[in-house]
Fold each of these.
Amino acid sequence: MNMEGKKKAGYEYLLAYKLAVPIYDLTVEFVEKNVSKFSRTGDQMIQAARSGMQNISEGNKQQGMKGYIKLCGVARGSFEELLKDYYAFARQKKIEIFLKEKALREIREIGVIWGIIKKYPALPDQPNFPNIPVDLPRAVNLMITLVNQANYLIDRLIVSLKDKHMREGGLAEELYRKRTEFRNKNFL
């Protein structure tokens, strides 16, 4: 439940979704501060971050598992595109890309974001994530680290959904079972 006591949608409890929220918010902030307003890249980065977040929620609302898996794949692809844009930014600006251990040690915002994510079963409406660091190397490496983490979580989500689909079947099988039950009750 959120702060007002209302139950949130199922996807809002997923770590992959909860991490996608600050990725989107921080990407908007990063682009506003560091990418030319005349560059298509900035718009594309924001759209990729938004797509990563939105496709997780849209997938969860699909009636069938097949659609959910597909949209999680779209989210994963969007975040991969975003990751490549951050890598390109770092390369073009000659910014060092931190190893995972260095990023976790030197970028305090990673811990703050994960503290908020872990504190709440579903994020509050205003989760109060930290701002993008002013220091450009820290900002770029923060985003690279978060997107890599989101990609890992989405990959695990997709494996889990595929496993569930294999065990339980999809929408067509569910409808067939219900139709068979209906026929057995009403025609025997």
Note: The mean pLDDT is 90.
Amino acid sequence: MRIVVIGATGTIGSAVVAALGSHVIIAASRRRAQQRVDLSNPGSIREMYRAVGRVDAVVCTAGEAAFAPLSELTVDDFQLSLSSKLMGQVNLVRSGLDQLADGGSFTLTSGVLARLPSPGSAAVSLVNAGLEGFVRAAALEMPRRIRINIVSPGWVAETLKAMGRDPAEGTPAAVVARAYRESVEGSGNGSVIEPSGS
């Protein structure tokens, strides 16, 4: 199985690559990867697909979104969040349909702030909830037995540690990665997968 992992060099992405190790992985990110791609640029997404050719699955663990108090979020902050994390992943699906093999799958990423917002999460919560709605609706229209799901992780232990917080409050990246593997190898369609376990 040929799988493109966008965000493959990040904390979650590298764990996903390890979890899917028995497959042929094409690592994509803005830097330090086999294939460069900028999610905020639809042309870059199309070029990535031209470069990698036919694939069996697309996994995205990338996308930027601004986190700040609502009173401080600017139009540019919202635009970044919309063009990168939300429309970047939407465009991965739109541009990738013709590149995906019959019965293939897309796995996108939202996050816990879609359902459990916090002060400062207005932009992030907006795009995460929008992505989950997109996946549920898009699943009804996928051609050729293609599936689409989204993983909604909470705080990742390694990220908390890097922030100087208690990693015990988060889920290890390797555990989060199992949810992505479940999406790629399973039969679910239109699902919001919340990683759990240890």
Note: The mean pLDDT is 94.
